[in-house]
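Predict the structure of S41 family peptidase.
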Amino acid sequence: MRRALAAAVVLVLLGAGLVAAQSSAPTPRTYLLGVLNLLRRYSIDRDRVDWPRAEAEALRAAEGVSTLSGTYPMIRTVIAELGNPHTSLLSPAQAKAPSAETIEVPSSRAENGIAVLTIPGLIADPEGEHRYVEAGIAALRAVEARASCGWIVDLRENSGGNMWPMLTVLAPLLGDGVAGSFVGPGLAAKVWSIRGGQAWVGDHPGAAEVNPARLTRPSPPVAVLTSRNTASSGEATLVAFRGLGRVGTFGGPTAGFATSNEVFALADGAQLRVTTTFDTDRAGRIYGVEPIVPDFPAQDPEAAAGQWLRTRGGCA
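Done. Here is the predicted structure for S41 family peptidase.
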């Protein structure tokens, strides 16, 4: 999951085993030491690793390596020791965001008083994020008048990315107030909230956009659909709904990546994504590497959600 506009990507050059700006490119050795320093400093799993041993073994394995990319196997070996599948190293090709025109955007449909809003994952540059939010607002507005029974939010194929545009699109359904938070060892909680159609993290907007849409029926019942493909920011979006008495969750358990990452852009264009905090819901329940089990496991979650919404009253 990505925090504060794509996890507040931290641009760094690595040298002397520390995060530091340099006028010249790092050597493979200083690059490797710098990445290990980031893992040691920021990972919530850092206490699992014997760092002097891991560093010494990584340096021995890197002897004779002449390129920065040649250190990737040593870095990934240490990441494996952390034991958190949400922490990863992406090559420059893997880290490149897709063009704004190619990303999947939210969509909607409505039938028999139930509006279905599908919220896909999002990895994009700012232009892509803007397109995602604009499409989401349009999708919500297109079905708002036909949602007399309530809403289904479909997160079954939301594999993550940037959570803030997702929450911005869903702001009218979430309503104003605290939606969750990030917590981690030795860190003050960072609260997520919705304020006037905008998603916030702490005292800062999470996304630049504001959702101006307003519902004819405020605080409607909402059914959220999940599956094993619901991961990372998809799970954070689910967590934002948990604890609301008018919300039920349907489908299958999620992937178990309900944690947040800091994203460090490395000197060669690679990205280091370090898991730094756990997600918590508005009731203070902490999530993490265990799948989130829905309230109502179902083979046909959309049908089950529709039946549940019709029991909530207000259908026209």
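The chain has two domains: 5-95, 100-259+277-310.
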